[in-house]
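Q: What changes when nicotinamide-adenine-dinucleotide is included in the input?
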Amino acid sequence: MAKSEGIPAPAVRRLSLYLRHLENSQGRNRATVSSRELSRAVGVTDAQVRKDLAYFGQFGHPGIGYRVDDLVARMREILGADKVRSVVLIGAGNLGKALMSYRGFRKKNFNLIAVFDNDPQKVGEPAADAVCDRIQSLDKLEAVVRKHEVKLAILAVPASAAQVIAERLATAGVRGILNFAPVILQTRPGVTTSTVDLAVQLEQLSFLVTTGQTGDDRDGDGLN
Ligand code: NAD
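A: The predicted holo structure follows.
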């Protein structure tokens, strides 16, 4: 396994985009792809593709390009997407319910094993796609996380509750938190958070539209 420290975050983000394109190519029975094709798919230069992939190892074959099956397998391994990962979801409101019904997580090897909420009216309701078939009380959070050695969590609670729950998750052993609450979480070393804020992305899009920049902001950094 290639070393991953010191690899710029945009390169890691692009890896997921390369993987998505390669999986599509695999679905169309393509044996190889060129760096030119990957560059067009992701909206970067060929040189950027080669540079990104070089962070993770030697993949290309001169005159052939990249072998799709090999590269997909290697990228899944690098991204940890080759293993089934258990995930817990906290917050079974509007957003939480949409997320728990989303089948795309399972397809990508993310297994939603439990959903928690602190509303007694919601506890005990069916939890759509989760392995546990009922929404559970937040009191059970630590026990479930420890028992299943869960490393990933999704937070879909109000901003006012997010920090406290993030700390509880970290103490119980969670190492990655996908946060939908509009708040910047303070985390301890060893815990990574990724905050999704659709309003911020709309703002970025609005900026690009206002300034007349066109194209696809594929890595969501507000730059084309
Ligand atoms: P909602 O009010 O419908 O749901 C919130 C849920 O969290 C409720 O079921 C509530 O009972 C539960 N909850 C509240 N405090 C809790 C606690 N301490 N422990 C466990 N559960 C608790 O809200 P929503 O529309 O689903 O939004 C959820 C969060 O996601 C909000 O912070 C919202 O701002 C955010 N949000 C983000 C985006 C985005 O683009 N990132 C989009 C929509 C909503």
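Observations recorded in class: The CA atoms of residues 43 and 218 lie 7 Å apart.
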